[in-house]
User: Which sequence fits this backbone?
């Protein structure tokens, strides 16, 4: 009886896939579709970009932890950056919303310190979302240290989503 159970577990292990070791184009397409639909409903590309950037960085960090360690220097950073780029760049033609910022620090108009810069809101939001995803574990560790080693239930995920939602809300209100 015991050998039959072991044989069943082995056969199930051989028939079912273990882990995915690639950046899933279907995930990117799904996230992109959700982003396009959100922008069609009136959500700005900046706010959408925040969540897409966070998704891309989280996916890259997840994949880098699954792969065997250190084939190349800075492997985790390279995989995370690759994931970010392969998620954000294909969505650029679909999410084109721009804003401008006028910088008047000095010099004649047209110099680096006195000109109007055009900003792609989706790219700016993606960079902000990716950055928030990268700093939220450190921020969670800081909160844990302040609380003398105690954590709030679901502290990491709650902190991450709070940062993302607040930044998306601010982006919607300000931009």
Assistant:
């Amino acid at each position: 009886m015991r050998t039959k159970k072991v044989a069943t577990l082995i056969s199930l292990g051989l028939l079912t896939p273990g882990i995915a070791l690639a950046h899933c184009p279907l995930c990117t397409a799904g996230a992109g579709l959700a982003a396009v639909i959100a922008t069609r409903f009136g959500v700005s590309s900046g706010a959408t970009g925040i969540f897409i950037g966070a998704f891309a960085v989280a996916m890259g960090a997840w994949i880098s932890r699954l792969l065997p360690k250190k084939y190349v220097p800075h492997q985790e950073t390279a995989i995370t950056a690759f994931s970010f780029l392969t998620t954000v760049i294909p969505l650029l033609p679909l999410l084109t919303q721009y804003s401008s910022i006028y910088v008047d620090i000095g010099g004649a108009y047209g110099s680096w310190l006195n000109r109007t810069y055009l900003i792609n809101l989706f790219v700016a939001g993606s960079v902000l979302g990716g950055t928030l995803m990268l700093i939220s574990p450190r921020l969670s560790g800081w909160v844990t240290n302040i609380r003398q080693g105690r954590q709030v239930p679901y502290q990491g995920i709650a902190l991450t989503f709070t940062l993302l939602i607040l930044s998306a809300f601010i982006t919607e209100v300000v931009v």
